[in-house]
Write a structure and sequence with these properties.
single chain, GMP Synthetase, Chain A, domain 3, 2 domains, 3-stranded mixed β-sheet, two-stranded parallel sheet, 5 strands, 46% helix
Length: 151
């Protein structure tokens, strides 16, 4: 952060301008998607892969928060591309690239085992005793032994 603050104001201005541009692009994209995508996607860039003036091929790069949202977005991609290409700003759009944003935070999974009744544990154990496949039998026995007794 210190390094950024020590840069010339022109560099910071360009950075802020680019940030606002990406925010604008994200809002434009979201106008063509269902409301459920708000907060789940953001535009990373709109750039030309081919530098020759003749064959401009712009790609819109969109990040999603998870692979599931990336899959949902892929479903809407043809419609989204058609809608965006109708706008003068996006008329040279050739493809939409979808990326899953990585996160440095770890998602904590609920470590609590599901609650089974004593009856369920007994049924699992009795069933396991009559199974010939040793791997399956052992797995079911572990399950019966490890289930949390309750309700």
């Amino acid at each position: 952060m210190k390094k950024i603050l020590q840069q010339s104001s022109a560099s910071l201005d360009r950075l802020l301008q680019h940030s606002r541009y990406l925010e604008y692009l994200s809002k434009r994209v979201l106008t063509y998607l269902p409301a459920e995508f708000v907060g789940k996607i953001s535009v990373l860039g709109f750039s030309d892969k081919n530098k020759s003036q003749k064959d401009k091929q712009y790609a819109l790069i969109i990040a999603t928060i998870s692979p599931a949202w990336a899959s949902k977005l892929r479903f809407y991609t043809p419609t989204l591309k058609r809608s965006l290409c109708a706008e003068p700003k996006f008329n040279q759009l050739k493809k939409i690239v979808i990326r899953v944003a990585s996160s440095n935070t770890t998602v904590k999974k609920d470590q609590k085992n599901p609650i089974y009744s004593q009856n369920s544990a007994t049924i699992i154990q009795n069933s396991a005793e009559h199974i010939e496949n040793e791997e399956l039998k052992e797995a079911l026995m572990r399950l019966a032994h490890n289930v949390e007794k309750g309700g």
